[in-house]
Design a protein that fits this description.
The structure holds two protein chains of two kinds. Chain A is 59% helix and 16% strand. By secondary structure, chain A is an alpha+beta fold. Chain B contains eight helices and no strands. The longest helix of chain B has 39 residues, at 50-88. The chains are: A alpha+beta, B mainly alpha. Chain A: This is PadR family transcriptional regulator.
Chain lengths: 110, 219
């Protein structure tokens, strides 16, 4: 895995972005999706993922649905209306951040 | 290989319960996560017995899982504080404070200062103890699951109650004088209103959990 500290600051945005592309997702599914998309470069630990999910839920950006799957209960997360709007803002902030970093680190590409 | 069977899921559930993950809302999610990880390991070709795989997984990941539990409780407390303040400072909450104040002020006209003061400080404590006792009996009698936010909801009340008692003892010396009575009545009105607000929030949270976890007993 690369520098996890650099990714950590964007964890909420990553979660919101993934949920905006799926109707609903559960914790383990999110970790696997991120792992697959980044080809194993970014591995979200449960110690980071679930607190982030619970915080987003407490802020009203995510809604929760519980379903019985494979002999156990599974907690699914999905975006609320506020969450959908916040995703757009967060992605725009992240794009600006990437652009700024690009101009600092590699001005030719900016 | 398909999913883990009921006994294996129950084993994970019991293990986490014994590891101090006592609240069902967080444990449910952890059980699913651990089960999914173990299923993945088995699907990737590990042919060992479930219990060996589980043991190895826990040696590597237990601390991270328990760290998640601690953070979850912090978020639950924050959620309660937010709901409590929202409820207390809503129009209904402010009317509740005013009604308690008016009733206590009227009652004050009929009792001696000392009796009234003792009574005022005893009432919230007695109600709080009864509330706690009923909750404790209900949990055992009906074998109810424990939910984090519902159970931790009385914490703010304990802090508020002790804060006011501390203020009273520090600044008002403990002797009863008429000039202090308005302060004491206001204090008790706020404490009783906080209790009403906590009761409203408890019902709201319990209903939410009931709706969300209606299948919990099948685990």
């Amino acid at each position: 895995m690369g520098n996890s500290k650099l990714y950590k600051g964007s964890l909420n945005t990553i979660i919101l972005k993934l949920l905006s592309e799926h109707d609903k997702m559960y914790g383990y599914e999110i970790t696997q999706k991120v792992k697959a998309l980044t080809k194993g470069e970014f591995n979200i630990t449960e110690g980071a993922l679930y607190p982030a999910l619970h915080k987003l839920e407490a802020e009203g950006l995510l809604d929760v649905e519980v379903a019985k799957v494979d002999n156990r209960l599974r907690k699914y997360y999905k975006l609320t209306e506020t969450g959908t709007k916040e995703t757009v803002n967060k992605l725009s902030e992240l794009a600006d951040y990437i652009k700024t970093m690009q101009s600092l680190v590699n001005p030719k590409l900016a | 290989m398909g999913a883990l069977n009921k006994e294996q899921i129950q084993f994970i559930n019991n293990y986490l319960d014994n590891s101090n993950v006592i609240y069902a809302d967080i444990r449910t999610e952890m059980v699913d996560h651990v089960a999914s990880e173990i299923e993945e390991i088995i699907n990737n070709g590990d042919e060992r017995n479930f219990y060996y795989i589980f043991k190895d997984y826990m040696i590597e990941n237990k601390s991270k899982l328990l760290q998640n539990n601690k953070k979850f409780l912090k978020t639950a407390d924050k959620k309660i504080r937010k709901a409590l303040f929202k409820n207390l400072f809503s129009p209904a909450g402010l009317v509740t404070i005013a009604v308690f104040f008016a009733v206590l002020y009227l009652a004050f006209q009929y009792y001696s200062l000392e009796t009234f003061k003792d009574l005022l400080f005893a009432v919230p404590l007695v109600i709080f103890l009864i509330f706690g006792l009923v909750y404790w009996i209900a949990l055992r009698r009906y074998k109810l699951e424990r939910f984090s936010a519902v159970e931790r909801i009385s914490l703010p009340l304990v802090f508020i109650f002790h804060f006011f008692v501390f203020l009273n003892n520090t600044f008002f010396g403990g002797t009863a004088e008429e000039s202090k009575m308005l302060y004491i009545i206001l204090t008790i009105s706020i404490i009783l209103s906080v209790m009403v607000a906590l009761f409203r929030v408890t019902i709201q949270l319990a209903k939410g959990y009931q709706k969300r976890f209606k299948n919990l007993t099948v685990l």
